[in-house]
Amino acid sequence: MLSPANATAGIRAEPLVSLENVGVLRNGRWLVRGVEFSVSRGEIVTLIGPNGSGKSTSAKAAIGVLKPDEGRVERKTGLKVGYVPQKLSIDWTLPLTVRRLMTLTGPLPERDMQEALEAAGIAHMIGAEVQHLSGGEFQRALMARAIARKPDLLVLDEPVQGVDFSGEIALYDLIKSIRNLTGCGILLISHDLHVVMAETDTVICLNGHVCCRGTPEAVSRSPEYVRLFGSRAAQTLAVYSHHHDHTHLPDGRVRHADGTVTDHCYPEDGHHAHGAHEHAHAPHEHGHDHDHAHGDGHAHDHAHADHDQHAHDHAHEHAHSRSGEGRHA
Ligand SMILES: Nc1ncnc2c1ncn2[C@@H]1O[C@H](COP(=O)(O)OP(=O)(O)OP(=O)(O)O)[C@@H](O)[C@H]1O
């Protein structure tokens, strides 16, 4: 079967946006330097890196919100961008319906609004107050707002924040289906070093500069990634694929699709029928019904690696996310 990545390869020649040697200088400090990447139609590019490594800055430079102080950013003429920022300044004390949220930045034909809400799976919540939405529903509303104007490029800054585990998988599925449906390019910022979308074509690992790049699996194997985040981080870099029913946490416990955590897998969990070598498939080649797409073939060793400092950092970070649902708690 032709994967989406291959299917779009032919029209990748002309990027929607490309950054060449981009640097952003503020108060005498280079926030990022030497950033190079591009996003083409149908392509999913994920930026990862520690806090303050310049992910948001690079994304803002890509869409023109920030002007680079050196290097070049080229955008396709007439490029339409849908942007979901990391933080939204919403006055949570004032009532705001989903319908109103959709039109805050400008009028929108009713049909386009309905279509976008339907695509995001929250058409029935059009009259709901934004304050009452769950973390996942809120992210869906933001995504609906971003896709309503049919962008060529969708930029999502941490789209799974405040979302529990099964909600995260559902959001990644939604992002994938938006890409498949519309063929737009997607630039995703992930604050989770350990989990990237299986459909990501290219991971760009930032640390003030591009530390390494490639497929999720290549990045998890790269010496630069290991140097930056430690070998245990590389060992636990997991790749979500569509058919996950559970995931192995770095401390050895198992989290199931319904969010429950147990010490062991259930006997019916899919991967136990498979040999370890089957876990070495690239994300796009996944046909089996589990979630052990690790950097190399030693899935079980890696799945049960101990917590490292980064995992703790993320627990902390997610514990402070909007809904207070810590993914790594
Ligand atoms: N306008 C600004 N002026 C000065 N410094 C800034 C400005 N915007 C961002 N920074 C700094 O630039 C660095 C990169 O910030 P950026 O938000 O791009 O990082 P990030 O990788 O997205 O981080 P996080 O994971 O914490 O969201 C940080 O040290 C931040 O404090």
TrEMBL record:
<comment type="similarity">
    <text>Belongs to the ABC transporter superfamily.</text>
</comment>
<keyword id="KW-0067">ATP-binding</keyword>
<keyword id="KW-0472">Membrane</keyword>
<keyword id="KW-0406">Ion transport</keyword>
<feature type="region of interest" description="Disordered">
    <location>
        <begin position="260"/>
        <end position="329"/>
    </location>
</feature>
<dbReference type="InterPro" id="IPR003439">
    <property type="entry name" value="ABC_transporter-like_ATP-bd"/>
</dbReference>
<feature type="domain" description="ABC transporter">
    <location>
        <begin position="17"/>
        <end position="232"/>
    </location>
</feature>
<keyword id="KW-0813">Transport</keyword>
<keyword id="KW-0864">Zinc transport</keyword>
<dbReference type="InterPro" id="IPR017871">
    <property type="entry name" value="ABC_transporter-like_CS"/>
</dbReference>
<dbReference type="InterPro" id="IPR027417">
    <property type="entry name" value="P-loop_NTPase"/>
</dbReference>
<dbReference type="InterPro" id="IPR003593">
    <property type="entry name" value="AAA+_ATPase"/>
</dbReference>
<dbReference type="GO" id="GO:0006829">
    <property type="term" value="P:zinc ion transport"/>
</dbReference>
<keyword id="KW-0862">Zinc</keyword>
<dbReference type="GO" id="GO:0005524">
    <property type="term" value="F:ATP binding"/>
</dbReference>
<protein>
    <submittedName>
        <fullName>Metal ABC transporter ATP-binding protein</fullName>
    </submittedName>
</protein>
<feature type="compositionally biased region" description="Basic and acidic residues">
    <location>
        <begin position="265"/>
        <end position="329"/>
    </location>
</feature>
<dbReference type="Pfam" id="PF00005">
    <property type="entry name" value="ABC_tran"/>
</dbReference>
<dbReference type="GO" id="GO:0016887">
    <property type="term" value="F:ATP hydrolysis activity"/>
</dbReference>
<keyword id="KW-0547">Nucleotide-binding</keyword>
<keyword id="KW-1003">Cell membrane</keyword>
<keyword id="KW-1278">Translocase</keyword>
<dbReference type="InterPro" id="IPR050153">
    <property type="entry name" value="Metal_Ion_Import_ABC"/>
</dbReference>
<dbReference type="GO" id="GO:0010043">
    <property type="term" value="P:response to zinc ion"/>
</dbReference>
